[in-house]
Specification:
Shape: globular
CATH architecture of the largest domain: 3-Layer(aba) Sandwich
Strand order of the largest sheet: 2-1-3-10-4
CATH class of the largest domain: Alpha Beta
Distance between the termini: 69 Å
Number of strands: 10
Low-confidence stretches: 1-28
């Protein structure tokens, strides 16, 4: 009888252990971050400070690289990542496509880190000269708005040029072969083309666009894990502040990760905006203007309200950078 009771006790203990293990496993969280070959997230990933900080909350971190903002936000939309960074335009297209995302934070403007490039021997001397020309860009990326604004500033319509939608690697190949007349691109691809191909800058974002970088999350993740979002934005901000003060050291760390020479990487680092903060009304208003512009051009099917998809930190969560 005692053996039977002991056996039953062991079975019950084993069952309890299994149940506790299942609970622990169910409670374990993974933060899945999408990043690109630029920006603070590249350095944050390399430094490992986020992993250390979130370990105290029982959160693992998984990183996935994307070639551009539209692809990254598609990953966010289908649930393969929880958080990521893009330029100004991709979130507009994603919201128009009914992606359930929210803006979490943004970096300061970096208008020189995107540009319209032409080959070094091109006869195109101004944006106005692009009329009837083939212009390559990643559709829905940050440079899409730069192109729209530059054409408008030069007195051209969007329909006055031939847009060729290509991802960065394919666009560079087309640019090198002379298959397109101009390429609208961001750093570090921009800096690489300037240094390696002697590409000429026809127009960067100065005086036209802010080129804010936005951090976005799925609405569900931001709602369910505000403390994780708070920690993440805080680590991004700290890394950015350190990067701004130490561009040479940042270059030494990032260049091998990007597979680029240090001079190209340093150029990109120096043109970048650092210092993540939660969105201000002014930033929301600027983003609304971009959304309105794309709707007027019939590039998105309906008008959008940006403030409807801006995450508000809950009471008790400090405003990053403020």
């Amino acid at each position: 009888m005692r053996k039977v009771l002991l056996r039953r006790g062991l079975v019950a203990l084993f069952a309890t252990a299994v149940a506790l293990g299942a609970i622990t496993e169910a409670q374990a969280e993974t933060l899945r971050i999408g990043y690109q070959k630029y920006g603070t997230l590249v350095l944050l990933k390399a430094r490992g400070t986020l992993e250390k900080r979130l370990a105290d909350q029982g959160v693992d971190v998984k990183w996935t690289e994307f070639p551009g903002g539209p692809q990254l936000l598609e990953g966010l939309n289908v649930g393969s990542i929880d958080f990521g960074v893009t330029g100004e335009t991709p979130p507009v297209f994603a919201q128009a496509a009914k992606a359930d995302l929210v803006y979490v934070a943004n970096e300061p403007p970096a208008p020189t880190s995107e540009a319209i490039l032409v080959p070094k021997d091109s006869t195109v001397k101004s944006v106005a000269d692009l009329k009837g020309k083939k212009v390559a860009l990643n559709k829905g990326s940050n440079v899409h708005y730069l192109l729209v604004r530059a054409l408008e500033d030069a007195g051209l319509k969007y329909t006055d040029i031939q847009t060729v939608y290509l991802a960065p690697a394919d666009a560079r190949a087309a640019f090198e072969k002379g298959a397109v007349d101009a390429w609208v691109i961001w750093d570090p691809y921009q800096a690489a083309a300037e240094k390696q191909l002697q590409a000429r800058t026809l127009k960067d974002g100065t005086g036209l666009v802010d080129n804010n970088q936005f951090y976005l999350a799925t609405r569900t993740f931001a709602k369910d894990h505000p403390k994780v979002i708070e920690a993440l934005v805080d680590e991004v901000r700290k890394t950015g502040e350190w990067s701004k003060a130490n561009p040479e050291q940042v270059t030494d760390e990032v260049a091998p990760l990007l597979g680029l020479p240090k001079d190209i990487t340093l150029t990109s680092v120096n043109r970048q905006g650092f210092g993540a903060q939660y969105l201000t009304p002014a930033v929301v208003e600027a983003q609304q203007k971009i959304a309105d512009t794309f709707y007027q051009l019939k590039l998105i099917p309906q008008p959008l309200v940006i403030k409807d998809v801006v995450w508000t930190p809950p009471v008790g969560v400090a405003a990053a950078g403020q």
